[in-house]
Amino acid sequence: MSKEVTEPRINIRVDNDIKEAFARKVEAEGKTMTVVVTELIEQYLGLGQRSNELADLRQRLEAVERTLSGEYIA
Length: 74
Hints:
Elements: H1 16-28, H2 33-45, H3 49-73
């Protein structure tokens, strides 16, 4: 008989409407609920701060690029 090694779990209670909206959004983004919740916990704890900063910079750069491309079109 082999023992299956599993990672720790956290169970939470949320309103069904919130759960369904969350499931739709993560699916649309090609992610899983586990990945998103883990990212949120890491962000809350200040872990992975550098990757959050890079994601923020990427979003800001994309906004600048959209603005600049709009100026060239006009």
